[in-house]
# Entry
Amino acid sequence: MCLGSSCRSRRLAAPRAGVEGIPEVFVKVAPALSLSVNVSGVYISYPFCAQKCTYCNFASGVFPRETEVRYRQALAREMGAHLWQWTPDTVYLGGGTPSSLSPEDLRAQLRAIPGRPWAEATIEAAPGGITPDAARAWADAGINRVSLGVQSFVEKELRRTGRTHTAQTVAAEIGVLRANGICNINIDLIAGLSAQTATSWGESLDWVERLAPEHVSVYMLEVDQDSRLGREMLLGGVRYGAGDAPSDDATADFYELAVDRLAAVGIVRYEISNFARPGFESRHNLKYWKLEPYAGFGADAHSFDGRTRHQNPESIDDYLTGAGQIDDVPHQSDERFFIGLRLSAGIRPDAAEWRRYDAPIHRFLDAGLLETDGATLRLTRRGVLLSNEVFQEFVNL
Ligand code: SF4
# Structure
């Protein structure tokens, strides 16, 4: 959900003349490609939430019911008009809060996607509304992985974000999911929430240990000035705990503690923000970091066909009217450096890349931010904390 750079997908295709009832931009045509892949991922954006979290700067939020109905119709048209170049093996419903879709609406949105049973089909869910009926309906619809937007298990921190669930709710709902056959669970956590301390962060990690999820995402909060929390901070106010946020150093310490504690229970970092038990790494999100193709549907969804990136209009209104189009962007060869380097496994530059990036590579090797065995290049532990600085160098070349 939410903080997931990870959960934004990328584009497949060029617009062409309209099909009945569909804005031109939503008609996607698969170009002929010669990639060696035969599977792709599908991302569906459902940017509707029960309440707006105080730190959130996404276009997602609370909208009139009528807008939600029109959005579902537009989404169904966009997906129905898509020409499938590959049979997808992963599906990811992100948001927003796609778990608020009724079983009928969820089935309707998934109907257009070939390839079921998908190897991995994830739905992002807000804790607090997962009933046995909902879990059964998700499993029946082909969902086999649930990503829970927990963010914290500490009530004081949660209330300041605007979230209403409790740790006990999360524990009970994970039980419900497992009892209904959904046994691949992700827990999202945020380091750096207002009121967070080393002790309270330790409590959240205790809960993670007890609940033993297959996957954990840990995001370090970067407060955006477009969020309610960010605006309050700029004004010097105290609402949403704006005067009570941990320092950047403390946030980095919380993240580092999570790396160690999760590793100690077998949940190992495989990407900057993502940790999994072996075999439970997110197959879908790995496509983003490995530059494999994926098709995104809905507002702000991204697609990537191996050569070109496309982004749907960011706002729901623009998506519904076809306004605010963003031009396609050719895939850049340096993306491998700042996207692939996010993976703990690193990347294997070819001879031309070693030559082209010789200067920054050696600068970061000398600074202890990158390490290499001669063939593979990857971030060091310290390099992970300073990854934005490292990536920036490769973007600018
Ligand atoms: S659940 Fe909260 S953080 Fe996630 S998209 Fe909605 S408002 Fe933003």
